[in-house]
Amino acid sequence: MEATYKPSRSVKIAAALMLLVGVVAVITGFTTDPSRTWANLLLNNLFFLTISIGALMFYSLQYITNSSWSAMFQRIPLALGAFLPVAAILMLLLYFGLPDIYKWAQPGITETDKLIAHKSPFLNVPFYMIRIVVYFVLWISLAYALRKFSLKEDQQADLKYFNKSSYFSRIFIFVSVIFFSLAAIDWIMTIDAHWYSTLFGFRVMVTSMYYAVALIVLLLFFLNGKGYFPQLNQAHRHDLARYLFRFSIVFGYLWFMQFLIIWYANIPELTAYYYPRFVGEWQFFFYAEPLINFAIPFLVLMSDKVGRKKEVLISISLLLVVGLWISLFLQIMPGSYGAIRFGFVEVGLWIGYAGLFIIAVLETLSRSALVPKNHPLLEESVHHHL
Amino acid sequence: MSYKHIIGVFDDETLLLKAFRKLKENGVNIKDIYGPFADHDLMKAFAPESRLPYMAFIYGVMTIIGAFGFLYYTAVIDYPLNYGGKPYFNFPPFVVILFLLTILVTGGLSVFTFLGRTQLFPGKEAKMPDPKAMDDRFYLVLDQNFNPEDIKGWLKESGAEDILEKEIDF
User: Fold this and answer.
1) Residues of CATH 3.30.70.120 domain(s) within chain B?
2) Which of A264, A302, A303 sits opposite B93 (nearest CB)?
3) Nearest Cα residue to A269 out of A126, A118, A122
């Protein structure tokens, strides 16, 4: 119970090597094809930012609903949120690559493109950068507050920290629902500046929790394999499987609703987005996205006897990591870089970011007790059964 | 057909669960349990395996296939209408109807399967071991396939509040 996780030497070396691969990929990318590298940087930044925000939303949701089952491993989603400051710095560095990714950021575009000129009060570089700063200041300060109260509870058994966490969770969920939806519009939807979908921000925001739960599963079983969380039982696995199952339905629903309405309405500006994906050269990814993110998890996790098996949970979570990448690849690449390229830059950059993510998360995880000490719902969580 | 049954009355579900496990170990045939609320552990112990989800899955698959055939027949073969220049056979608009029909038909058939399997119907008179059963006590109805004195002893041991002997029709 008192154990604190210390990442072993081999894990640290592996993460550092991954980071090195990423640095090599960035260098090769910028020397060969800068525009492709900028698009990939955005993709990978969003990949891990999605997980961080989703994990913190999951954490807040546990406080808002007074859930006890997850109290035991609540430090895991909290640690997954530790990538936020790193993501903030990397996101601000994208300033130098904005014209490579976004058409609206290219100088002189407002004179030739009437639609972008009309949208320019919102879509201009200074306001865009201000928005990014505002998002990150809000998220990081709230994540810091949530972490502070959780750690103070370790030192002093007092219900007031639980109540404060609960209060800040409510603020965080509102802030993330509003501002992560807006951020998704800013970062992804404006790549195709002529196109819009009113569902887009909500879809990205809600499904972020889907992938966060997948990462929580992976990290939880990684630590469980090392001997931590010996109290993890079938009921916990059952609840995690149900989380993934419900979110797979949510994903399928929102993904299809966005497509169906645009397909049916047949408005040229909107179908221009789906045309290269639905019938053009991106078709493979278009069909792979719902298959990996919806169909396979839905069918596999349908039976709880299968879903609560550790191996099944881990393989579905690994599949969802691929699913998130494909989903972002399909949303970012056609509009920014415009051609399908899958090579060392894509793989290397992802590995580099993953290394950075692992370092940030495991460092944060090792700085506090793995199991919160004075959480009022801890006993209920340890003895969780259905 | 009515037989004589032994009924153990409990006022605590944890005591009932203990008695249930003890009797099961000794091979006593447990007919039914009556209680004011559902207890998950008890439900799992009494009926660990429900086949209803498998039936629901089969109904769902059958409905999807049937509804697809129906949609294909109406939209393509029998009454093809041109909406906005789209081809007659189109999967995207089918999905919503398939989804809703699957929920409706699977839900309905599952309810009827459940009613048929448990021989229930609206307006059926409930079989109660005692008029007070389900008020504020748990009633554990047992077969007399053992020496009744043994069963009564086990019930007493596990903390039964009262032990009744009644002829009930099951």
Assistant:
1) 2-36+134-169
2) A264
3) A118
Chains A & B: contacts with CB separation below 8 Å: 13
pLDDT in tens, A315-370: 999 999 999 999 999 999 998 988 898 999 999 999 999 999 999 999 999 998 89
Query: Given CB atoms, is A10 within the 8 Å cutoff of chain B?
Result: no
Residue A266 is nearest to which of B53, B84, B93, comparing CB atoms?
B84
Q: What dihedral angle (degrees, nearest 10) is formed by the CA atoms of B8, B11, B14, B15? A: -40
A266 touches chain B (CB under 8 A): yes
* Class at the top of the CATH hierarchy for domain B2-36+134-169: alpha beta
Q: What is the pLDDT of residues A125-183, one digit of tens each?
A: 999 999 999 999 999 999 999 999 999 998 888 899 999 999 999 999 999 999 999 99
Residue A15 φ then ψ, to 5°: -65, -40
Min Cα separation B44/chain A (Å): 10
Return the domain boundaries, chain A.
9-376
Interface probe with B: pick from A69, A238, A253, A263, most Cβ of B within 10 Å: A263
Any residues with CB less than 8 A from the CB of B153 and at least 6 apart, and which? none
